[in-house]
Amino acid sequence: MASKIYECISRIADRIIENKDYLTELDREIGDADHGINMARGYSEALEQLDKEDGDLSAVLKKTGMILLSNVGGASGPLYGTAYMKASKTVAGKEELSVEDGKAVFEAVIGGIKLRGKAERGEKTMLDAIIPAYEAYCQAADAGSSLTECLDAMCAAAAEGAEFTKTIRATKGRASYLGDRSIGHQDPGATSALLTMEAIRDFFKA
Amino acid sequence: MKKLINDVDNVVNEMLNGMTAAYPQYIERVPGTDVVIRTGAKKTDKVVLISGGGSGHEPAHGGYVGKGMLDAAVAGAVFTSPTPDQVYEAIHAAECGKGALLIIKNYTGDVMNFEMAGEMASDEDILVDQVIVADDVAVENSTWTTGRRGIAGTVFVHKIAGACAETGADLPEVKRVAEKVIANVRSMGMAVSPCTVPAVGKPGFDLAEDEVEIGIGIHGEPGTHREKITPVNNTADHLVGKILDEGIYAEGDEVAVMVNGMGATPLSELFIANLRVNEILAEKKIKIYKTLVGNYMTSLDMAGFSVTLLKLDDELKAFLDAPADTPAYKEV
Fold first, then answer.
1. pLDDT on residue B222
2. How confident is the model at residue A140 (pLDDT cuts 50, 70, 90)?
3. CATH for B185-320?
4. Higher per-residue pLDDT: B256 or A52
5. What is the pLDDT, as a whole number, of residue A201?
6. Class at the top of the CATH hierarchy for domain B8-184
7. List of domains in chain A
C-alpha cells in the first residue's frame, strides 16, 4: 500500500501542477492570485521529497502533510497539511483501505479543516466541495456500491459543490473582503479540493 | 512585467540577503530559514516580539527588527503567509526564557500559520501568546467575515509593544500594551495603480487610467469602491473621514499620524496628502502628537497611500517616544 499511496499522491500532485494557472486565475478574481502557485510549489516539493520507501500508508500521508505545511503557505498550507495529517492518523496501522475506511478518513479530514479554518459549510470554502462529496460517498457506500462507484459519486457531488460556490457570498478567507462581489466566482479552494478528489478517483479507476 | 529581479523564484532569498548585507549591525539571517533576528540575539533577557507575513511589504517586517521593536521577523513568499515551521524557527531562534509575543496581521493564512507555530512552540513549554492586528476600516467588521485586515497600523504595534518589552515587562503586560494599541489604531488606504506579484507576472487587478480604488488592501485586495481620480485632498478627506467615523477619536484627543506610501508613491505626494490630514485634524481639534510620512508598509509597486491614526494616552506616548534603533524606524 505504501507504494500505492505514493502513486496516488503523485497523481494528485500532477493534477494540481497541471492546473496551476487555472487555480491562480480563479484566485485572481476573488483572492490574491496565488492559490495555484502555492499549491503547485507544495506538490512539486512532495514529488521531489516523497519516496516509495517512505514506510507505510500512514507515514506517507504524514510526510505529505508536513511537506505541504512547510511549502504551501497561505491558508491552503495549514488546511491541506492538516487534512493529510488527520488522514494519516486515521489509517495508522492499516495496509489496505476499505470503503468504510474511506468514510473515517473523510470525517477526520473534514473535522480537521473545520477546526483549523474555523469554517462551516456554506462559507464559500473547500468544505463546500468536500462535505457534499463525503455525503455522496457515504450514500453510495451504504447502498453497497463498489469503491469506484463511491468515488464517482464523490466526484460528481464535489463538482456540484464547487459549482455551487459561485452562487454564494464568501464569509471566510480573503474573498470575504469582497462581500457580495464574491458571488459569481468559483472558490479556488473548493476547486483544488475537487481536483484532488478527481485525481484520487482516476488513480483507483486506472 | 518589468522588475529589478534576477529570478522570480529567488526574490525573497535575495531580498533577505541584501537586507542583512545592508544592516549587519542590526539584523542577521537565521541560517537555512527566511527568518531575520537581531544581530547577536539571545543576549537579552526580555519578552521577544515576533512578526512577519508575506513578503512584498518591505520594510515590513525585517526592517523593524532591532532595539526597541521586533526581535525576529519571518518572511513568507510574496504576499503569502510564512509557513508554521518558519515561524517556529523564529520563535526558537529569538526566545530567551521570558516568552514570545506573535504580532499577526489579520489574514486567514497568517493567523493559521502563526497559530500552528505557537502550538508547536507551546508543546515544548515555550511561553507563547499572540495579538492580531485588524486596523483597516475599509473592511466591514462583522463576526460573519474574516474581519478587518491588518495593515500599516501594525508598525505602531511593533513600536509601542517593542518599547514595552524593552522595559523588562512580562508577557501578559506586553500583550496588554499591544492590545491597547490595536484598540486605538485605525487605517485606510487607496491605490492609483496596481501591483504585480513577480511569480504572477501581471497586475493583481486592473484600474483604468483615470480610476482609483478606495479602501484597497496591502495585497491589492479590492476596496470599498472605485471612482474617478480627484484632487488628493478629496481622497484624504474620504480616508480620514472613514477613520473618524469609527468614533474613537474626539475633540481634544492626541493622535499619532502615519501617512504611508504603498511602494511606488513619490514622497512629494505623501507630503501633500499629509498636509490635508493635518488640516482635517486641526479642524476637528484633534492634536497631532507625532507624524510619520514614508514607506512603512508597502505593497510591492502599488502606487497609493494609507492614513493611520493612533489615539494616544500618556502610557502610549511614553512608549512611542522611547528609543528605537532598527533599519527602518529610528527614535532617538
1. 74
2. very high
3. 3.30.1180.20
4. B256
5. 97
6. alpha beta
7. 2-205 (1.25.40.340)
pLDDT at B187: 97
Q: Give residue B299's pLDDT band: very low, low, confident or very high (50, 70, 90).
A: very high
- pTM for this one? 0.87
With cut-offs at 50, 70 and 90, classify the pLDDT of residue B147.
confident
The enclosing H or E element of B278 equals helix B267-283
Residue B134 near residue B147, CB atoms below 8 Å: yes
DSSP state of A72: T
Contact assignment for A38 to B222 by CB distance below 8 Å:
no
Across chain A, how many H-helices and E-strands are there? 9, 0
Please say if B219 is a catalytic residue: yes
Q: Could you tell me where the beta strands, DSSP code E, fall in chain B? A: 27-29, 35-38, 48-55, 72-78, 100-105, 128-133, 185-193, 211-214, 225-228, 254-261, 287-294, 303-312, 324-325, 330-331
Q: How far is CA B104 from CA B19, B101, B107, B169, in A?
A: 22, 9, 8, 20
Rg (CA), chain B: 19
- Give me B236's grid cell: 484624504
Every domain of chain B and the residues it spans: 8-184, 185-320
Name the residue of chain B whose CA is nearest to A170's CA: B145
Q: How far apart are CA A171 and CA B326, in angstroms?
A: 38
pLDDT in tens, A8-26: 999 999 999 999 999 999 9
Chain B residue with minimal CA distance to A181? B222
Could you give the C-alpha distances from B316 to A20, B130, B144, B153, in angstroms and in order? 47, 19, 32, 14
Whether B225 is a known active-site residue: answer no
Q: Which cell numbers in the block locate residue A147?
A: 469503491
Q: How far apart are CA B25 and CA B31, in angstroms?
A: 17
Could A78 and B109 be called an inter-chain contact, meaning their C-beta atoms sit closer than 8 Å?
yes
